[in-house]
Design a protein that fits this description.
The chain is mainly β. The chain is about 5% helix and about 15% strand. The strands form 2 sheets. Strands 5-3-4-6-7 form a 5-stranded mixed sheet, with no helix packed on it. The protein has a two-stranded antiparallel sheet with strand order 1-2.
């Protein structure tokens, strides 16, 4: 199944007033969330602080998903996805109007966390600790691509445990 690309135009970035393209799709960094080593922050102020199976709150530096900001020095292989490729999110949707950190220009802007509930609507688009989740304009759910290449709509009503389990490499 092919996922249609939705073009939304351009947005003004918050860094240096540069223009950049936005995207509707982000890589899944997992569900550990709440710290940022790059800023020496043990607590980023998110309402959805969650420790990962790797005992880290920093999903950007030590994601428990398939891809994360600092994964350039870690080789990901299918064999590291213990729960199976067909059960693990690779990519998910986002709505650029709901998240200012949604472009391909910066490494921080291409990832989302499943620590934030699916289709969360009450986060301010400019507050990155609470706006880096997955969401869509589809009624009832969000499209995700799995690590095996399959694509499906995940219901907004999905149980938190099921959603978080699908976000990380070991399925818990």
């Amino acid at each position: 199944m092919l996922v249609p690309i939705q073009l939304r135009g351009w947005v003004r970035a918050t860094l240096k007033n540069s223009w950049m393209g936005v995207t509707n799709y982000k890589a899944n960094m997992g569900a550990n969330w709440g710290a940022d080593e790059s800023q020496n922050l043990d607590d980023i102020g998110s309402r959805w602080r969650n420790i990962g199976f790797n005992n880290s709150y920093d999903g950007q530096a030590h994601g428990d998903g398939v891809m994360w900001r600092d994964d350039y020095n870690k080789r990901m292989r299918a064999s590291k996805i213990k729960d199976g490729l067909s059960k693990t999110f690779l990519l998910g949707e986002d709505v650029p109007e709901a998240n200012r950190w949604n472009s391909w220009a910066y490494a921080n802007n291409v990832f989302g966390t499943c620590a934030i509930p699916l289709n969360q609507e009450d986060a301010h688009p400019g507050w990155w600790p609470d706006s880096m989740g997955f969401r869509s304009d589809h009624p009832g759910g969000v499209m995700f691509a799995y690590a095996d290449g399959a694509v499906s709509l995940v219901s907004t009503d999905v149980a938190d445990l099921v959603y978080v389990s699908a976000s990380n490499r070991i399925g818990r």
